[in-house]
Write a structure and sequence with these properties.
By secondary structure, the chain is α+β, with helices and mostly antiparallel strands. The strands form four sheets. The protein has a five-stranded antiparallel sheet, with helices on one face. It has a five-stranded antiparallel sheet with strand order 10-11-17-13-14.
Amino acid sequence: MPEHTPLKAAKADLVAALRRDLIQTAPSDPRFSMLPGMEPVTDGLKAWSDYLDLLRPAGEMAAKTWFPDDTQTRAELYRQLVMNVAQGYIWYFQSTPDHPDWMPFENSIFLLQPNPDGIYHLAPVSGSGVYRVVGTRGTNPIMGFAIGRGMFGTLGPGPSYNNYDVDGLTLADDGSFEVIFSTERPAGWTGDWRFMPEGAGSLLVRQFSVDWGKEAEGRFAIERLDRPAMKPRLTADEIASRLDRMLGYFVAHFTGMTLGYQAKIADTIGFNTMELTGFEDIGNSPEWPQKYWRCIYDLEPGDALVIETDIPLCKYWNVQLNDTLWNQIEFGYRQSSLNAAQARLDTDGKFRAVLSLEDPGIQNWLDPQDCRRGMLVGRWHRAEDYPLPTMKKVPLADVRSHLPADTPTFSAEDREVQLRARNIGVQLRRRW
């Protein structure tokens, strides 16, 4: 039921009292304002040319790609490094643990392995802090919080801490919610509270949609209760330190981390071989109710990879393609992903898709946008079981002999209509 005005007023008074009490007892040590992985590393402000020099070693990442002598790969690497600069500016300068704000994370612009169905927002936090999040649920099938050790790309890989489904909170009739995150429940607070460990460095909101542009994204805001509201001006030394970290470390490290991870998977399982994983080694906490099926795909013109799987009873599933650099392949104007609302299931209830460089003329084409090597990732979320799909490599000319006889033909006109609908759906979503 909607809250009555007196109850709302009482909660507002309690929040105000918490702010006053917590601010009075907050530690003054400036280390509490640091973001993990962003500690000061400077002796002062450099000349602008010196900051530009910090970016030069990032170009050496080309040697770590699968195709270091390929001009297209090198050009796309440079594009990715510029993307990291744009991402890094937001992460290093927009928000702090003392004065947090939601920052766009993975989406159709920042492409380092986002889920095309997902919209991600990230806020820096300190495990010593008390944070209040308010908002509305929206209608996406999945919306939840994840508490991490720090900003992805500023620390090495490692599991995060806790995952909390928004549907576990007290939701008003209009979908609004309010929750406090801290190591201990604040005295006198009777509303929703979720534990945040002392080592926390980030709070992530992720929302998954299957009917793009028709399901409504949630709205949310964050504040730190145990710090004054007024945000101080960054000092010259603070700006210098963040420039050092961002340009001299983050830009190259973010790309190096993802290239190294994708190469490690190839070394471990080979090419065109599926495995199940929880992705705990790069940030998912063990209790996140999602399993992934992945492989490093490798194909040439004229090849086709046929994927086949049963669909378990689950809240959500999808499959996507990443490129050689672990970017999500263009997913508005190309069909590089499929979910339950977009895919066609065969009459036997199974999902079959074809991954090929050329359009095979079926609805469930996974289009790698001419990237002949990359990663395929599928998800089962809150599933009764976790089947491992099969994959087989066949000549594209023979692909229909490996599909059910009643698989309908999908024309170029059908593909045009499909892609235009995808792109409209992407643009109607809140991405940043």
